[in-house]
Known about the structure:
This protein is of the alpha+beta class. Helix content is 46%, strand content 14%.
Amino acid sequence: MIKIIGRKILSGEFNLTKISIPIKSCYPKTALYNSIKGYRIFPYFMKTAAECKDPIERFKITLACLVSQPYYLNMFLKPLNPILGETLECQLVDGTKIYV
C-alpha cells in the first residue's frame, strides 16, 4: 500500500481517495456489527440512571453513557462494508433486542 501511495505521489497524481485498501487491513467484522458493539454498555448506565432520583445525576449518567460509546468503536482497522440486504440482530445483557 505504501508503494502504491509513493507511486501516485511521484507521478503527480496526489488524489489519494481513489486508492483501494487491501483486505488484509480490514477489521474482520462488518460496520453493522461495530455499530452494535458500542451499545453493549447502555444497559448498565441506563439501569443506574433509572434508579437515580436526582435529575442532574441522571443527566450526568446518561451523558457519560453517550460519551463513552465511541471508546468501544475506536479502532485502527477499517470495518468491512455491509453486503446489500445484510441485517443484524442482537440481544443485550438486560434482554433488549436490537435489529439493524
